[in-house]
TrEMBL record:
Transmembrane segments: none annotated. GO terms for molecular function: oxidoreductase activity. It holds the Pfam family adh_short. This is D-beta-hydroxybutyrate dehydrogenase, mitochondrial. PROSITE patterns: ADH_SHORT (PS00061). One of its GO terms (biological process) is steroid metabolic process. The lineage of its organism: Eukaryota, Metazoa, Ecdysozoa, Arthropoda, Hexapoda.
C-alpha cells in the first residue's frame, strides 16, 4: 500500500502493463485532433482500438479505417447528443467482448468535446446547452452505460479535460464550466471506483486548438450569435464583436485529421494508460501555461484577472462614440455576410 501510494505521489517507477491485440480501448472524438492521434498511437501499441467518430464518413474516420492490420481498428459513429448512438456503442463493445473471450476491455477514453468562443451574453442558449450536453452530460451518459463492463474487466477511465477546468478563461465560460464539471465528477468517481480496482484519471492536454477541429465552426457560431442580438446589443457590441471574431478566424475552418504531433503528450498518455500505478492527474502544458496556472493558485483575484487578460491577449471593448455609431451599424453587416 505504501509503495503504491509513493509511486503515485512521486511518480516512482511503477510496473508497465503489457498490452497486445487482446486489449480493447474505446476512444471518443476521433475524427481529428487528439482523438485521432490517440487512436493511431494506441494502434501502434498493438492494441485493438474502437474509435468513435462523430461522422463515420469523415476524412479522419476513413483514414483510421485504412490503417494496416484493419482488424485492430474499429470505427463506429457516436453523437453524444443522441442517446441511441451511446446505447449502440455500448452494445457494439459488449458484443465484441462477449463473442470473443480473448478480448480484455482495458480503457475508456472520454475525449469528445465542443467549444464555442464568445462572451456569455453573446452565446445563444442552444450553444451553451450544447457544450454542457457534449462535454459534461454526454461524457457522464456514455460512462454510465459502460461502467458495468469497466467494472467487470477492471478497466480504467481516462477523462480528457482542459486547462479551463483548472483556470477559467473569459469568453469560454460555458466551456470552462462544463470541463470543470467533468473534473469534479472525475475526482468523485475515482474515489468510488478504487475499491473495485478501477482507475479513473484526469488527463489535461496542452493547448492544441490549432491542430484540432474543436473550434472549426467558430465563425458559424459567431453568425448565430449576431443573428440573435437585440437592437441594443448590436449598438453596444458590434464593433467589439467584429474585432473579436476577426481575431479568431485563424482557428476557424476544418483541418486535416493528422495535425496533432506531440510525442511528449503521447508519452504521458501511455503512462496513464499502461502504468500499474498511474497518477490521478496528468497535466501537459507549455511553460507559459504552467506559469499562469501556478500564479492563479496564489494570486488574489484582482491581480489574477489582469494577468489572465494578458494571457488570452484578445481584442478589448471600446465604448462607441455617437459619431461612430453609424460606422458600427455598417460593420455589423460584415460578420453576417462573411
Amino acid at each position: 500500500m505504501l509503495r503504491s501510494t509513493c509511486a503515485r505521489i512521486f511518480n516512482w517507477g511503477g510496473k508497465k502493463l503489457n498490452v497486445s491485440p487482446r486489449n480493447v480501448i474505446f476512444i471518443t472524438g476521433c475524427d481529428s485532433g487528439l482523438g485521432y492521434a490517440l487512436s493511431v498511437f494506441c494502434h501502434s501499441l498493438n492494441m485493438t482500438v474502437i474509435s468513435a467518430c462523430h461522422n463515420i464518413n469523415s476524412v479522419g474516420a476513413r483514414s483510421l479505417q485504412s490503417l494496416s492490420d484493419s482488424k485492430r481498428i474499429i470505427t463506429i459513429e457516436l453523437d453524444l447528443l443522441k442517446p441511441d448512438t451511446i446505447q449502440n456503442a455500448q452494445q457494439r463493445i459488449k458484443e465484441l467482448i462477449d463473442d470473443n473471450t480473448y478480448y480484455q476491455f482495458t480503457a475508456l477514453v472520454n475525449n469528445a468535446g465542443m467549444m464555442c468562443f464568445g462572451e456569455y451574453e453573446w452565446q445563444t442558449w442552444k450553444q451553451i446547452e450544447m457544450q454542457f450536453n457534449v462535454n459534461l452530460l454526454g461524457t457522464l451518459r456514455l460512462s454510465k452505460e459502460l461502467l458495468p463492463i469497466i467494472r467487470q474487466y477492471k478497466a480504467r477511465i481516462i477523462n480528457i479535460t482542459s486547462h479551463c477546468s483548472l483556470m477559467a478563461l473569459p469568453s469560454l465560460s460555458p466551456y470552462a464550466a462544463s470541463k470543470a464539471g467533468v473534473r469534479f465528477w472525475n475526482d468523485s468517481l475515482r474515489i468510488e471506483m478504487q475499491k473495485y480496482g478501477v482507475e479513473v484519471i484526469n488527463f489535461v492536454p496542452g493547448s492544441f486548438v490549432m491542430s484540432s477541429n474543436i473550434a472549426a465552426r467558430q465563425q458559424d457560431h459567431a453568425r448565430e450569435m449576431a443573428a440573435n442580438f437585440s437592437t441594443e446589443q448590436h449598438k453596444f457590441y458590434d464593433d467589439y464583436f467584429q474585432r473579436f471574431n476577426q481575431h479568431l478566424k485563424i482557428i476557424s475552418g476544418f483541418k486535416a485529421p493528422n495535425q496533432m504531433q506531440d510525442r511528449d503528450l503521447l508519452k504521458k498518455f501511455e503512462h496513464a494508460l499502461t502504468n500499474a500505478h498511474p497518477k490521478s492527474l496528468y497535466i501537459h502544458e507549455p511553460w507559459r501555461y504552467k506559469i499562469y496556472r501556478l500564479l492563479s493558485e496564489w494570486c488574489p483575484p484582482v491581480i489574477m484577472d489582469s494577468l489572465i487578460l494578458k494571457f488570452v491577449d484578445m481584442p478589448t471593448y471600446h465604448q462607441p462614440t455617437e459619431e461612430g455609431e453609424e460606422s458600427v451599424k455598417t460593420k455589423s453587416l460584415k460578420i453576417e455576410k462573411s
